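Budget justification, computational time. The allocation requested in the original proposal was used primarily to generate structure tokens for proteins on the priority list. As evidence of use, we reproduce two of the resulting records. The first is shown immediately below.
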Amino acid sequence: MDKYFEEKRILVTGGCSGIGRGVVLELWRLGANVVALSNQAENLYKLKSEYPSIETACVDVRDWDKTRQVVDSLGVFHGLVNCAGVGLMEPFLECKPTTFDESISINAKAILNISQVVAKKMIDNKIKGSIVSISSQASKAGFHDHVAYSASKGAVDAMTRVMAVELGPHGIRANAVNPTVVLTELGREVWADQTKAKQMMSKIPLGRFSEVHEVVNAIIFLLSDKASMINGAQLPIDGGFLAT
């Protein structure tokens, strides 16, 4: 797929850390004109310093109007990857409204906002684009302390289905990926406790967590024309966890 995305302009939210950074760098390697959007100004600066040809945009996606303004100013895109997200963990009986609202705002509402702007320009410019959003296995299975997170990711799956139905007639595909634990820098810290990690891995038939590149590869596939008939899917990247 050398230079496969040449002359394609793709926006990646949450693009300077974790899965988002991995997607940005792989798209850059494949020749895309990539824009990394994040609220992490320092990490965006580091990314830009290392890869000057990658565009960056800094905005807090919780701010509906400002985010809309920034994304609109970036122009037309052939693809969008919604990676920006937050994981706030509280038990069901103790979950605070602020925790729930924050989770929905970043993990779901921001996807609605950004995808609306990008999709409208795709339609106006007759671009048969692709939108990929990061969901989670937690949208499809119950986990302790995940009530707000699971609700927000369930919303991602539901929005993906609706986007597929409504945008499909315009030639725009919308899909989601649903990873298990991913060994980003943060993921390694959260799951550093080997007892806790082994307990979780025992529920995964492949017996391990996902590496970042394994999620990135799936996203790249869904963005590409190689997935031209895949629309409205929620693709597990979980080593078989949801099959058990």
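The second record produced under the same allocation is shown here.
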Amino acid sequence: MGISSDPNKSIPVPSSKQKRIKVMVDGTFAKEGENTIQTQKVNAVIETMELEVSKERSKRLRLPKSYINKLNYFLDKYKFDYDSMFKDFKNYDQWSAKQCRQRIKKYMTIQEQFANYLLSRNLTIEEVNNWKEYISDD
């Protein structure tokens, strides 16, 4: 054997990671002597996966019904007065004024749910946009 200052360098241990890195750098997945049919199958799978990822997905964000009921109550009573929402007795989750504002804005971006609110109150989006906002970060 002999004396060595660093035995890991003098007698390297074979690493499967180094083999994987070498294969990834070369870009081929087939071992020497194999036909390229396997690499073609791998490339086809990669292409189908890339197509699936590139497809645009519909947004499925929905707020829970309890949030919707509370936000409807706040909008009916205070419109965009977030400080009053913050002080309301139904604010048992203890949302701050900024959190109330954030949740109202998020609710307004979900068209399917907010459209139900507008229809039930016989409002249009223009009327809602004309409500006075008491705090703003503009």
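A brief technical remark on that second record: The mean pLDDT is 80.
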